[in-house]
Design goal:
The chain is mainly α and 275 residues long. It has twelve helices and five strands. The longest helix has 33 residues.
């Protein structure tokens, strides 16, 4: 079957006594009740194996409903479309049925549900971290526009000292000496440089934009913290695998979780290096 966004064509290849197959074609919607109807129809046709071609995320609801009832294969779309002459989704699903019958399809790796859920979470974490970086970069541009060179002195300008200085900047403090005095730790040895870096010209316009972005930054950080807790909960059954991955040089716990989410626990889907 082809799995588009709104209308799902399905083809069942029915074997005849003559040895020739006959195509049974139907088209279904993609709402849940439509997919349940699809599953019932496939059962009534005594189908045991289902192959689907799709792009994006549209295959997932279909897979979730058919999984466990049939042997389901998700097929690499570019591999199938390399065959010329098929211009419609109906012809596509007929061709997929014939390829499946002859064992010519190679299914993509689809991990079990817990690993797919972990994959969703780790991908969301990566996306939120990108959002965090993007917001921080926008904040830095505003500071540069106001000629505040905080990042030139503090490499971690969003650390404890940097945030204390930002809070006072947003509160309206303009005295560079008072702002520099908020430095903590090793930055205390750079107070004179920090004072020069904070002698900018920040306007109310700068403050307003910076305040909006800072609130967004704090929100994204809270979401990342919540997501980290959920990932740890999801990893509770895979602590041994995570610990094993972290024995690899350069792999820490975050990378180990990402690795587990991408390839799962079953190594059988990967070819052996032996001849």
């Amino acid at each position: 079957m082809e799995v588009p966004k709104r209308s799902l064509p399905a083809c069942v290849l029915v074997s005849k006594a003559s040895g020739k197959g006959q195509h049974e074609l139907r088209r279904f919607g993609t709402m849940t009740h439509d997919l349940l109807e699809l599953a019932d129809w496939l059962q009534s046709q005594h189908v045991t194996h289902v192959a689907m071609e799709s792009t994006g995320v549209y295959w997932k609801p279909v897979w979730n409903i058919l999984e466990g009832q049939f042997e389901v294969v998700s097929v690499n779309a570019p591999h199938i479309k390399a065959v010329p002459g098929r211009k419609t989704d109906t012809k596509d699903c007929q061709w997929i049925a014939e390829l499946l019958q002859h064992g010519l399809l190679r299914g993509s790796f689809v991990p079990p549900t817990p690993i797919r859920e972990l994959w969703d979470l780790t991908r969301m974490r990566a996306s939120l971290r990108q959002d965090h970086t993007a917001v921080a970069n926008r904040m830095q541009k505003i500071l540069e526009d106001a000629n505040i060179k905080l990042a030139s002195v503090a490499s971690d300008w969003l650390g404890v000292s940097g945030r204390a200085i930002l809070a006072q900047l947003l509160a309206g403090e303009e005295d560079a000496a008072k702002l520099a005095a908020l430095s903590r730790g090793r930055l205390r040895s750079k107070i004179s440089s920090m004072q020069l870096a904070l002698e900018g010209r920040m306007t109310e316009h700068h403050r307003w934009m910076l305040r909006v972005l800072y609130e967004q930054l704090v929100f994204v950080e809270a979401q990342i913290t919540k997501l980290e807790a959920k990932i740890q909960e999801q990893l509770s059954d895979y602590q041994e695998a995570v610990a094993l991955c972290t024995t690899i040089p350069g792999i820490e716990e975050v990378a180990a979780a990402n690795l587990l989410a991408e390839i799962g626990m079953n190594m059988d889907q990967f070819p052996s290096a032996q001849p």
